[in-house]
Amino acid sequence: MPELPEVEVTRRGIAPHLEGRQLRGAVVREGRLRWPVPADLDARVRGLTVSSVTRRGKYLVLDLARGGRPAAALLIHLGMSGSLRVVPRETPLHRHDHLDLLLADGGVLRLRDPRRFGAVLWTEEEPAAHPRLADLGPEPLGPELTGDYLYARSRGRTATVKAFLMDASVVVGVGNIYASEALFRAGIHPGRAAGRIGRERYRRLAEAVRAVLEAAIAAGGTTLRDFTDSAGAPGYFRQQLAVYGHEGAPCPGCGHPLRRSVIAQRSSFYCGRCQT
What we know:
Layout: H1 4-18, E1 23-28, H2 41-45, E2 49-56, E3 59-66, E4 69-77, E5 83-88, E6 97-103, E7 107-112, E8 119-123, H3 147-154, H4 161-165, H5 176-186, H6 199-218, E9 259-263, E10 266-270
Antiparallel strand pairs: 1-6, 2-3, 3-4, 4-8, 5-7, 6-7, 9-10
């Protein structure tokens, strides 16, 4: 499933081809995604200009303007297997190419989503106020995510620190892979109760989250099965994963065999010696 780094890699890939470009319509071949795509999307977007392409958590936000004034926005989620590419209009279709946004200069933004768990949502309100975005926590790469913030939010919590870190109302976009890697870097056992971890350890964790995500973005994301970027290339951060997917392998820090257990209903990989 594309996580925050993969979505950010996608954003950086498509933004130069979309920002400032006018839309001449849309083609919806399959509107039955996680939520129905508006049936009249073609008429809604026609003549609008993409003023910016931003990201909030795992959602891409295409801000649309008319005559230089904000008109609407499209919120796009890649679901479990989605990808976005800007391609020439004559590019042959794949069976899972469900939607095209048609650019006035002849290109198209094409959504491919084999499992149809993605979303294309239309809103005419401020995107931050949309129900899918309104309750999200701070961005992990922004200044709001600090150890002091995590420490304050964790007080009294009995849930595991991994579940706490993956809670989108606490911090947005830290999925299973990157939570495992950040907790390893910070030396924190993923099964520890969030409320029983001290302030200094949360400071190390905040730094580890940022470092892991930035490294993943620089490597083009992580391809475990489905992800490719906006140019169709896989992400290479998988080669830098220290613990995720390496059950039984020697720990990079101490050589002790790495373990796997199910925490917060997800596979968690960790070192029983280095992480306490």
